[in-house]
Amino acid sequence: MSENNETNINTVISDINESSDNITNDNNVNLTLIHIQNMVKIIELCSGRGAFKANELELVGNTYNTLVEFLKNLNSKLNKE
User: Fold this and answer.
1) How many angstroms from the chain centroid is the CA of residue 52?
2) Which of 3, 10, 35, 70 is buried most deeply by CB count within 10 Å?
3) How far apart are CA 39 and CA 71, in angstroms?
4) pTM of the shown model
């Protein structure tokens, strides 16, 4: 990923984070646990196939760890009930 592309992506992410309180789901699109589980599987497949460049690994790894921790915490909470 070039530095310009990375800067543009970071700008978009920053803009989304700043305005996330104002985002509504007008298209009735839902993110489910199945989607999150699939994201984890996709990251595993892509990393196993060498699809990520070295400078992208930290972002991918942090995202993966966050998704896995979210699923573990949710699973823990569901097992307590």
Assistant:
1) 15
2) 70
3) 11
4) 0.64
